[in-house]
Amino acid sequence: MRAIQVIPSMTKTMLALGAAPLALLPLAAHADEAAADANTILVVGQHESAISIEPRGLSVSLGEEQFAGINAQNVEDLMKYAPDFFVRKRYAGDSNGVPGFRGTHSTQSARTLVMVDGFTVSNFLGNSFGFAPKWGIVGPGEVAQFDIVYGPYSARYAGNSMGGLVNITTRSPQKTEAFATVQGLAQHYDQFGTRDTYRGYSAEAGFGFRQEDGPWSLRVSGRHFRNDGHPQMFYGLAESESTMPATAVTGAVIDPRQGQAYAPGSPAKPIFAAQSPAAITQDQAKLRLGYDGASGVTGEFLLAYWHNLDSQTAPDCYLRDAAGNVVCEGLVSLGGKTYDASGARWSRSIRDELLAGLKLAAPLSDRVTVQANVSSYQILRSDGFTSGSYAAGEVNGPGTLARQGPTYWWTGDLSFNARLAGFELAAGSSANLYRTDATNYALDSWRRDGGKDFSSRTFGKTRVLAGWAELRVPLEAVTLTLGARYEDWRAFDGGLTRLGSDALAGQQVTGRYDSRHADGFQPKAAFEWAIDARTTLQLSLARATRFPTVGELFQGSLNGDGSFNEDSFDPGLKPERSSDANLVLAHDFGPVKLTGSAFWQRVEDTIFSFTGFNQNGVTTSSYKNIDVTRQYGFEAIAEARDVIVPGLDIDANAAFIDSITVRNDAAPAAEGVQFPRIPRWRINANLRYRVTGPVMVSVGMRYASRPNTDLLGEQRGDTYGYTSELFALDARINWNVTERLRVSAGVDNITNDRAWVYHPYPQRSFLIEAGWTL
Fold this sequence. Notes:
Residues 344-750 form the TonB-dependent receptor-like beta-barrel domain. One of its GO terms (biological process) is siderophore transmembrane transport. The structure is a single chain. By secondary structure, this protein is mainly beta. The strands form 7 sheets. It has a 24-stranded antiparallel sheet that branches. β25 (407-420) and β26 (423-443) form a beta hairpin. It is globular. It starts with 8 loop residues before the first helix and ends with a strand. 47% of the residues are buried.
């Protein structure tokens, strides 16, 4: 077995833990006493553009200054060095990139609210890696600003902001302009029996127009992206008691560290194949129309289309028979034992999606403004074709089709802001509707949907109606903000359809879920004290409620007569309810700003998929409520400009997180255990140095300590099937060849660290880029 790490684990940990304090030492030494405005606690990137979302608690705003030091293959990369934050991105073009704040598990997608220009792109149709925000709707070249707020401390936003919220602001043209960017990608990958170089490219372009003496602006952009991502799954041989003839083979790979990835104490299975590389093709087109009238009326219309093709038709099979032929399924003989090789299938998924949004704002007087927006995200097509076996994939034999539709969500908001006698009052209402409808079919030929036979169908809807209000009271050096949000949730029109059995054989039978209703009152409070011109202290408190998604609720199974299998789902699944606190202290030294943050969160009825006792006392693996979870932690953040030498900028941050299961009657062994996939430590840093006027170099670092992989804390490892330690060093160089032309080159994961989030993260990856602007 080859060594799978370049830097030993202890060495990586020491390097990472040492990096943050080393970065901070020169900052304090070179800070002057220049005063700075500290009216709001906002770290990293005080841009000309104001933060686009309410900065309660810890808030981060990222712009061109930070983007220049990042190798951005996709838009979510632009946040890779943000404090105590991550995106589960497994390869360039990954559509399952779930964001996580602080102690949020990397599959708790419904705890993050993500918006583009204020329009919701969070996929609250479910709560797992398969329901990530729709990052692909935006290209990295069109982003003006990323705003990140940690925690649910503003009444303006839904309880799904329990973890935090992100808003991506795209560029608004200031004049007639155009841009074009091309990229080339490459990653050499070596794991188990797979050795290959995966390549990709992208081309992004757009133009903008703004009237010189008029209110209208227009921006049109598009991007084509093509990449081969490394394999995400590896298949193990299963021991067989069959007495049928077996093919003698060689070539299987055994990783002795892998056994617990399947079951604690079990031996490692011989790995016989890797899933096919994901051949990703994405096309994106966007139109943004803006209106900025002299009377103060503003408006924006956004229309975005995203096409995604994921083709996996080349499983990498390691086994060879005596004649050297590839063997990828069937009974095989290895080391005197008989095994069954299966699972290496072929697949192809196609998605077409559309975002449409309209936003209007107008002054009702010199003190009162009103704003309204409505948006819809439509999944126009979502077809997943999968072969029934490896052999069926080769010869276009039988398979399955998973088809979604109609599937969509609608969101709408109406709000007003008023300045009255020194107070600031804001209030509003909002609504959303999420609908899912997914049908599975059996196919005669897995590549096409002709001759499909019905297998099963899942459908359902949720809606939330909300009202909120916030009062901001400035009292000289102290500002008090009080708020509250009320949400009314309903789940309805849910059901399952399958083929019946016995007397109903061949007929479709349907079971319908009972409608569900719940509500949540969510008070908020923030106390902000401008201690002096350079120092600000803020205490934020909140309650938040996150209601179940359609994917968590409507996920049971039916018996052959159409009745529900009572052990397949929890009909009484409760909403998550959190209590949150965040204390933030920031001091601005002039060229250096230091921020410290302490946070605490207690969640009742955490919704999580795990194995434990269900409502009937039966052990099942399904979505259940964990009675109580708790997290607390500390964050230290440094932002420095022109320190030590002119042109040297540093952003560095470190976070400690303690996140545990306090009480879990369904799985008592989990109590007191660190919550899965939550590292104790996260450290990120980015150093940018302008060598000369047109040339800038940057170095980045990302570190996360090794977490538990499972809820019980029994699985900890550094190979496939685990969530491992992460240590990555990145580098980039930008050269402004002319005022209009820029070229860049970069490498991520210089040390070729091999890290895992069950699936493998990228190994050493290269990027070259050229950008042109008019």
